[in-house]
Amino acid sequence: MNEGRKGRVRSFRPEHRLKKSNDFKAIRVTGRSKGYRNLVFCWRTQEGISRLGLSVGRRAGNAIDRNHFKRQIREWFRHSKSELRNIDLHVIVRTHAKAVEMSREARIEGMRYEMGKFLQSSRPS
Description:
two-stranded antiparallel ribbon, 4 helices
């Protein structure tokens, strides 16, 4: 496990993951959503720990790019847990022609900007 500052253990544990299709469906039916150019955030409040689910389609890039996008989003989620309390969050990576032509680094920068914007504007509750 990775140790963060102040000796705290930072990891993305299995209990912080959305895995079941019923969980994803519940967020889609009863939750809220906010879309940006590269990412769509869907969430609902719930009791207990915050959980993250990711959807990255094949058109988002090759396997290396898709896995890199997922790692970046998981890292953001881990560092933002204090602001994302008691929610189930489903993040969808959008695919469109203009984004596919961009470099991976440019898309990552755009995603980081959108993740920060989501935290500032939505304040999910």
